[in-house]
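Notes to self, Glycosyltransferase 61 catalytic domain-containing protein:
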Amino acid sequence: MVSVDAKQAAPAAGGRAQRHLNLCFVAGFLLVLLTYLVVSQQFAVTSPVAVPTTPPHRKHQAVKSPGAGEAGFTQGGREGEGKAEARPAHEQQQQTAGPPKAEGRARGVGKTDDDGAAKPFDNGKVVCSASPYSYTCDVFGDVRTNGTAHTVTLVPATSRPERREWSIQAYARFNMTGIPNVTVTQLDSTSALSPAPACTITHRVPAIVLALGGHLGNYFHDFSDALVPLFVASRRYGGEVQLLAGNIQPWWLGKYEAVVRRLTKYDVLDLDHDDQVRCFRHVTVGLNMHKEFNIVPELVPGGVPLSMLNFTAFLRETYSLPRAAPIRLTNKKSSPPVDGKKMKKPRLMLLDRGHYRKLVNVPEIVKAAEKAGFEVTIADPRFNVRVKELALSVNSFDVLLGVHGAGLTNSAFLPPGAVVIQVVPYGKLEPMAQREFGDPAANMGLRYLEYSISVEESTLLETLGPDHPAIKDPDSVHRSGWDKVAEYYLGKQNVRVDVQRFAPTLALALDHLRQQ
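result:
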């Protein structure tokens, strides 16, 4: 028998149970919603390479450069206008801006550790430096690029006392015409007059801003001004880096597609026509050329030990070059046939320039080299030759011989231990010859030999006469400036090698190969 009090209490208990159930349902829904939001936020930060942050104004379409195969770049390609000027070296050298650490809440997107937890930006820093050839800036923190405006902006997380700017060219040589400057700005976070541009795309990889054009198109400068500095700047990332190229040259990206594709896994963006605001954690502005066609290991960023040996090994891998060593010869000057087969001779490639600084007695040089014990092939690589075909050809030789000029850049494809013979024209050009080809060859693990011609071996003696200052007093020509040096000694001179005088140089090359 149930009492009256119990009967009255039952409905009340049922109501409380119902309310408790409703509260549990609401709490469960909120927990699911919260979990979804957290997971979505982490996915947006850590998963894609580039995440649209706000709807873009227009969508770029990846296109390919003519003959570039799979190497794409973002559509565009106008050249910069006007003469670009960099700031003085004393203002740029090793400048570090900003306090060491930030406090407070992050601005912009967060960074992630290995556990995937979002962390705020620190205040960031701008580190600019000058080398004998180049200006570069490394920007760390909340970094935003605006391609069409040619700006790279550091957004501080906390109060910063002043706004600072650096104006530099992203090309590897100072003050090249036709290449616009990039302005690197460290914002003052307390100033309402310098608002930060909002991110439209967020990247999880670092970026390198570079400029093409300049001297590119000259085979030597393709390597010295672009490929070598780009290798140094990007190799540490293992392909996980975004390239933004100003003054973009589709033909150049097509010609060196294989190299660029191994340095970055992503299409090169056309900086001049990129209207997105891209956000990065680290942006390097400019390429640093340590020396002409050379690498100084102590100057390589990121603590990665790189040298010209690493660069040439990279080229051999890129172009699948089969030889990593020259021919092996016996120590005897002549070897008897083995099993009735004639012993192989070392192969010598003779570069025959088709214009100024050309060899005018090629047949005599060929005979002298054959007499010394070489198998000789005459080569005149043209501009439109595919790089892989040229690389494979050069790699099959043991000696590269040529007058000072861009053709000697092909020494990068020789196997380590091979020989480079540079014929230096008349006019006290030895320091330049050593700097541009001698030192790089030695750092590639090659044997470098130099043959400086006498005035009797120069056609200038015939064309100018013995009393001309370019013949009698080369120092006076050098004092007149580079234009006169280039005019006479590089632009008006051809070479007639005295094969008797040249014979000891050929003998040295053969002796080196015997010692390998």
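- Confidence is low (pLDDT under 50) at residues 1-13, 35-49, 54-120.
- DSSP finds 14 helices and 21 strands in the chain.
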